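STRUCTURE:
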């Protein structure tokens, strides 16, 4: 789940950077959230099914 969220935020960051020219602050917030989501994904390891 965190990996998917991280990839989605990374794609939004790239889209904002290259296509929409959103303000620099918002673009960097998206990038930070994407990196944090990916880090949480790898720290959690494999998800256990309950």
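SEQUENCE:
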């Amino acid at each position: 789940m965190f990996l998917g969220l991280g990839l989605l935020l990374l794609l939004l960051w790239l889209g904002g950077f290259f296509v929409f020219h959103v303000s620099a602050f918002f673009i960097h917030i998206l990038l930070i959230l994407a990196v944090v989501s990916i880090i949480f994904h790898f720290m959690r390891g494999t998800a256990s099914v309950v």
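REMARK: The radius of gyration is 13 Å.
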